[in-house]
What we know:
By secondary structure, the protein is of the alpha/beta class.
Amino acid sequence: MSVSLFDLTGKRALITGATHGLGMSMATGLAKAGAQIIINDISQEKLDNAIAEYKSNGIDALGYQFDVTDENAAIDAVSKIEREVGPIDILVNNAGIIKRIPVLEMEVADWEQVIKIDLTGPFIMSKTVGKYMVKRRAGKIINICSMMSEVGRATVSAYAAAKGGLKMLTKNLATEWAQFNIQVNGIGPGYFATTQTAPIRVDGHPFNDFIISRTPAARWGEPEDLQGAAIFLAAKASDFVSGHILYVDGGILATLGKASNE
Length: 262
Ligand code: NAP
Ligand code: GCO
């Protein structure tokens, strides 16, 4: 019987930082495609609340609390998942933070925290889960990059550097692990309506008006807009796709923008 190109039945997916926002949406999409969902968060309380929310939506998610920047904790948690749940087929490195501070005002500690969570975290998780995928000669890794993997904007230097590095880590892992039938890709969301962007999305905020005018789709992304890309990059359909960053951005990266009278 031919396997559907987008059917994830029998697959296990670990999504970091998936107690809400884009991570929860992508996890929900993967579950809809048949995957067993395993979520992570740094907060046990948020994990507990999220498990209940997934349950209310008909999804039996499993939760593992650890900090993705703590290699020992990640090793212990992944080993536990592999023993208790089964082989991790799909890893989504979604956990991330942002700090909006001009360079001249940014403390090195702020810079280092963003780099640690947004870039070193995915490195640690990829290395930790990749060890098992290499042995099995099969796996899918999806790194959640950003428009800031391609373009800059004032006040997000650490974030852009981390997400630009995550794009190149994606390409390097794709290169190193192709021989083990592991596909490593990225998703680059545009501007999405989550708690992370809430401060710059309020009605009347100049940045809100800017994004609406700068995005050809003329709207902020909704978390559900990412589900198709996540399913594609987690499924058989993308077995010959690797090192690719799939931008889901309403067309913003495709355009110079338009004059106000166009
Ligand atoms: P969010 O609402 O801030 O969620 C981020 C998640 O990561 C939270 O669950 C957070 O947990 C978790 N997290 C943070 N540090 C962690 C750590 N050290 N270990 C484990 N989990 C950790 O962000 P979002 O808007 O959903 O974005 C999710 C991802 O997409 C991020 O990588 C972000 O950079 C990226 N992205 C977002 C947008 C956008 O417009 N929203 C666009 C492009 C890319 P706690 O809540 O417990 O701290
Ligand atoms: C910002 C936003 C962006 C988005 C996203 C865009 O302050 O510019 O938070 O960084 O989160 O990364 O792709």
